[in-house]
């Protein structure tokens, strides 16, 4: 649905070139929620604006729903953009217009007639749970309600793709959960493909089917969230399960075991099979959009050579096992 090939975007700052997006390749499947996560300055926002060509990349191609946007200009580009909705971090609502008026504005720009506009606005506000706030102005709405108006407006043109620019970072945790629930519902009900950027790992855990980690303008890893969690050395896995540096224990091997399926009694099996006094040093289980995953830090008695058969057995059962340095 979304394909980015060799995307590069450079600015000039104080007379010097600054590379914001550096040769990014990315593929988002139709109907999935894909998150790009990274720290401030990683290039996430620039990447997102390149997807709908609010910023035109210096190099590379952007293809959305089979249409190469980088090959379009003028009216053809504007028409293609109508199939891509966008929601913003700070809502970007018109303060002089009501909730209904803000949604209607997008339809006015598209040239939709008055009667159809009124019907569509009512339908959209009902879809986002704001049918009773149609006449309220932005100043009379909570942050979550403002974002729901922004989402309704983004859906005005019946887009197939929805872009989200840090849509929940200005919201409190409870409201964030509500907005993420709404986005998942819209994804499933309307078949929307959602590409979002965020610095909040909780958003990736709760909402995303797939994700990419971005650093210094480059994608350092990408894939299904459950696959990344199980990938040795994964940056995303380290953020989801921040176990920290391992303790230094004499004559002990510390291992981190990642589990991406339920009902694997591997600790008890390991203790019985190798007659080991296995200790659990820490761990966590997370409910992800694509299923449950967990990571345990275990202490196995003996040095790495002595515990090698036990570690090999864990890996042979399909578990991801890492020996932290």
Automatic annotation (TrEMBL):
<dbReference type="GO" id="GO:0016887">
    <property type="term" value="F:ATP hydrolysis activity"/>
</dbReference>
<comment type="function">
    <text>Part of the ABC transporter FtsEX involved in cellular division. Has ATPase activity.</text>
</comment>
<keyword id="KW-0547">Nucleotide-binding</keyword>
<keyword id="KW-1278">Translocase</keyword>
<dbReference type="GO" id="GO:0006865">
    <property type="term" value="P:amino acid transport"/>
</dbReference>
<feature type="domain" description="ABC transporter">
    <location>
        <begin position="2"/>
        <end position="241"/>
    </location>
</feature>
<dbReference type="GO" id="GO:0005524">
    <property type="term" value="F:ATP binding"/>
</dbReference>
<keyword id="KW-0472">Membrane</keyword>
<comment type="similarity">
    <text>Belongs to the ABC transporter superfamily.</text>
</comment>
<dbReference type="InterPro" id="IPR003439">
    <property type="entry name" value="ABC_transporter-like_ATP-bd"/>
</dbReference>
<comment type="subunit">
    <text>Homodimer. Forms a membrane-associated complex with FtsX.</text>
</comment>
<protein>
    <submittedName>
        <fullName>D-methionine transport system ATP-binding protein</fullName>
    </submittedName>
</protein>
<dbReference type="Pfam" id="PF09383">
    <property type="entry name" value="NIL"/>
</dbReference>
<keyword id="KW-1003">Cell membrane</keyword>
<dbReference type="InterPro" id="IPR041701">
    <property type="entry name" value="MetN_ABC"/>
</dbReference>
<dbReference type="InterPro" id="IPR050086">
    <property type="entry name" value="MetN_ABC_transporter-like"/>
</dbReference>
<dbReference type="InterPro" id="IPR003593">
    <property type="entry name" value="AAA+_ATPase"/>
</dbReference>
<dbReference type="InterPro" id="IPR045865">
    <property type="entry name" value="ACT-like_dom_sf"/>
</dbReference>
<dbReference type="InterPro" id="IPR018449">
    <property type="entry name" value="NIL_domain"/>
</dbReference>
<dbReference type="GO" id="GO:0005886">
    <property type="term" value="C:plasma membrane"/>
</dbReference>
<dbReference type="InterPro" id="IPR027417">
    <property type="entry name" value="P-loop_NTPase"/>
</dbReference>
<dbReference type="Pfam" id="PF00005">
    <property type="entry name" value="ABC_tran"/>
</dbReference>
<keyword id="KW-0813">Transport</keyword>
<dbReference type="InterPro" id="IPR017871">
    <property type="entry name" value="ABC_transporter-like_CS"/>
</dbReference>
<keyword id="KW-0029">Amino-acid transport</keyword>
<keyword id="KW-0067">ATP-binding</keyword>
